[in-house]
Amino acid sequence: MADEVILLDYWPSPFGIRARIALREKGVEFESREENLRDKSPLLLQMNPVHKKIPVLIHNGKPVCESMNVVQYIDEVWSDRNPILPSDPYQRAQARFWVDFVDTKLFKPADQLWQTKGEEQETAKKEYIEALKILESELGDKPYFGGDTFGFVDIAMTGYYSWFEASEKLGNFSIEPECPILMASAKRCLQRESVVKSLHDSEKILELAYKLRKIYCV
User: CA 26 to CA 194: how far, in whole Å?
Assistant: First the structure.
């Protein structure tokens, strides 16, 4: 009997894209169900009653929540193809460490870039660039955080890469002069087939970002 794989998702979400990429990297067929986050479906509330957030992967009726937890689950269940996490325990621990850094240090300033203005926004820009520089230092001269292989940290970062253009335009700054090596890796990631198939048009993301900015910065 074939697996039933359903992904509860929201198209511009930098967290939803992580699950989409992982599924496509593994070649897993899945049904994507778009959520309205202002009017959440009974299925989402049933499958993620604690956080009530996307993405939720429903595999044969069983829910898995939180984006990088979902990615790790996908890697373990479909372990016979395209490994996402390294096999070495130390390297796996390092990958998890950097994913935690990404979501701890990038999420808040990334949100504040389009939610604030003036001094608050300038502080957010500084924190955002500082975090990206630390990540660039970790990346070093490797094509991907996973070395020669697109992996766990790259998937985590691609969610943010998909919002880079909107962040730059709303924050009136440029990432590439500050982090040219990281930007080269970002462009490499954004060209992968699994990513291209998972991304929506950058203009649509930018349009949404401007709408959100009007809501938060009256």
Answer: 9
Secondary structure element (H or E) that encloses residue 70, with its range? helix 67-77
pLDDT digits (tens, 9 = 90+) for 23-40: 999 999 999 999 999 999
* Residues β-bridged to residue 58: 6, 63
CB atoms within 10 A of CB 207: 13
**Residues 188 and 139: beta-carbon distance below 8 Å:** no
CA distance 39 to 204: 21
- Bond preceding residue 55 cis, omega within 30 of 0: yes
Please, is 45 exposed, middle or buried when counting C-beta atoms within 10 Å of its C-beta (0-12, 13-18, 19+)? exposed
pLDDT digits (tens, 9 = 90+) for 119-140: 999 999 999 999 999 999 999 9
Are the C-beta atoms of residues 183 and 168 closer than 8 Å to each other?
no
Q: How far apart are CA 196 and CA 190, in angstroms?
A: 6
Separation between Cα atoms, residue 140 and residue 210, nearest integer Å: 34
Give the Cα-Cα-Cα angle 185, 147, 132 (nearest 5 degrees): 40
Please give the helix or strand (H or E) that residue 56 lies within, else none: strand 56-59
83 CB-contact burial (10 Å; exposed 0-12 / middle 13-18 / buried 19+) = middle
